[in-house]
Each structure stands twice: as C-alpha cells, then as structure tokens.
Design brief:
mainly alpha; 2 domains; two-stranded antiparallel ribbon; 13 helices; globular
C-alpha cells in the first residue's frame, strides 16, 4: 500500500513538473514579444487591405444579391431569392456563361502549351535569349487600351492586316460564330509572356543531372520533355492552370474595349462579368448584378475544388 502511494505521489510530481515546464515554455521573452508585435505591425496593412478590398466586398455582394435597387436608384428593396430565380431562368445569363466557357476553353490550354514550349526553348543557352524573353513578355505590360486598338485594326474586315495578308474577307469580331474565339486569340497573345516567366522559374529549379543521366542512357529531347520536364514541372503547371482558369472566367476588359455596343456579335461574346457590368452600372440593377457575381463565384469555387482534387493524380511534389 505504501509503495502504491509512493508511485502515485511520484506520478503527481511528474505531472506538476510538466505543467511548470509548459508554463515556462510558453512564456515569451521581451525580445520575442517585441518581434511578435513588429510582425503584426508589418502584416497589418496587408490584413486591412485583404479585409477591405476582398473579404468585405464578398459579403457585401452576397447581401446585395437579395435586394433590388429602388426607383431612380433610391434605396434597396428586399426581394429574397427573386434575383437568383431570374438569373437561373434568364437566357441571356446562360448565353453569357456559355460564352465565358468558350473563351476559357480556348484561352487556357493554348496559352499554357505555347508558353511552356517557349519557356523550354528559351531556357537553353542561345544568343539573344534575354531579348526574346523581354519581347514575349511585353504584351503583359502593354496598356489594355493600346492592345485593343491594335487588335481591332488587325481584325478589321475591310482594311485589317489579317484579311489583307490571307486574302480573305472574314468578319473576325462581328461574326457571332467566331467573335468569341477571336477575343480568345487576343487573350492568348496577352498572357503568354506571364505564363512563360512562371514556367521559366520552375524549369530553373529542375536539376540538370536528370537530363545528363537520361542523355547517357540514350533519351532524346522529346522523351526528356514528357518524362522529366513535365512531371517535375507539374506543380508550376498546376498553379498556372488554376490561376488562368480563374482569370479566364473573369474576362471583361478585352470584350469591353474590343466589342462595340452595336456589334451584332456582342450577345454571343459577352461574358458573365460583362453582363454584371451591364446590369449593375448601365441598368443600375445592382441586386441582379450581384446575383450574377455570386453565381460566377460558385462556379469558380466548384472548378477550383475539382482541380485541387484532381491534382493528386498528376502533380508530383517530391
């Protein structure tokens, strides 16, 4: 009995010592407190910007989607889920969603493939490599208005460069059947440089030993590309894919600056974000515009979740 009491007292002493050690362990020194305070001070501007510019607008948009703007823009009228019922039965919304998907299906894969091939090519030792990289990146820093003006001239059906070059009379941006794909070509041209820079950064992290070893074994460049470059670059490819899908689904500026309001192909080209702009700022129906944004948010989240799940099967982090 005495031995049992002695063991219990010993166990209690160990527990008390562990508690004291835990208290000592989590007690911050003055230097640690100072670093903690300065750390919060440094991230505070970013946190404030994130809350004011991102988090608050999301909840505000969801809140606005349950209201209708009053007559002459005075006040909001609560209408519940009527805005969502309307957009789910509105043919214009579904057409805009289809246009958005058409644009993304063309812009995302082509911009990724072309940028990846350019990155692999410009990652090798060659004369003028820096100049070529700069040239391909220039469209990314060009003013969107200037880009729109140049491409509108290229696509002009009467005196445009493309029709004169190929001897055709194609209405590139006024034909409802091909206008959205013409806009996608501009998007591909504009974003190639950005994707290329991201791929170049990923390629420079791949050890050269893999290529040298495979060359000794007789592997050619195509084999190395598909069995070394692509697998080891898959995390970068995944990141670029996710960000480009989100960016493509939010396309607005190209359509706004290239397509005129009287363009017969506008209905077959306008995206969901463009339709949101029309409802919110032209028709002053911010409630319906907010509902369209919430619909787009749900679609983007669903696609991103699917991508996050699918990346487990083809992205290699080790």
């Amino acid at each position: 009995m005495a031995k049992t009491d002695k063991n219990a007292a010993s166990a209690a002493s160990v527990v008390n010592n562990n508690k004291k050690a835990a208290k000592v362990k989590f007690k911050m020194t003055p230097r640690e407190k100072n670093e903690c305070i300065w750390g919060w001070i440094f991230i505070l501007p970013t946190m404030i910007g994130l809350i004011v510019l991102n988090i608050y607008p999301i909840f505000k948009t969801i809140y606005e989607s349950f209201f209708k703007t009053g007559d002459f823009g005075r006040g909001n009228i609560f209408i519940g889920a009527e805005n969502y019922k309307r957009i789910l039965t509105d043919g214009e919304v579904w057409q805009s969603l289809l246009n958005t998907f058409k644009y993304a299906i063309v812009e995302v894969p082509f911009s990724l493939i072309i940028a990846l091939l350019l990155a692999v090519l410009l990652n090798r030792k060659m004369k003028g490599r820096s100049a070529y990289r700069t040239i391909f990146f220039l469209p990314m820093v060009a003013a969107p208005a200037a880009v729109a003006m140049v491409w509108r001239w290229l696509f002009n059906s009467e005196f445009g460069l493309l029709n004169n070059l190929f001897g055709t009379h194609i209405n590139w941006i006024s034909d409802p059947k091909i206008a959205v794909f013409s806009i996608a070509v501009i998007g591909i041209w504009s974003i190639i440089g950005y994707n290329m820079v991201l791929f170049l950064s990923g390629l420079q992290e791949i050890p050269r030993d893999y290529y040298e070893a495979s060359s000794i074994d007789g592997a050619n460049g195509i084999y190395q590309f598909f069995h070394i470059t692509v697998p080891l670059l898959s995390p970068t490819i995944f990141f670029v894919t996710v960000t480009r899908v989100i960016g493509a689904l939010q396309v607005f500026d190209l359509i706004f600056m290239v397509m005129d309001k009287n363009n017969p192909a506008l209905a077959k080209t306008q995206s969901l974000v463009y339709l949101f702009y029309q409802y919110s700022f032209v028709n002053n129906n911010k409630g319906l515009g907010s509902a369209i944004v919430v619909l787009l948010l749900v679609i983007i989240m669903a696609i991103t979740v699917f991508q996050m799940y699918a990346q487990k099967k083809w992205v290699y982090y080790n």
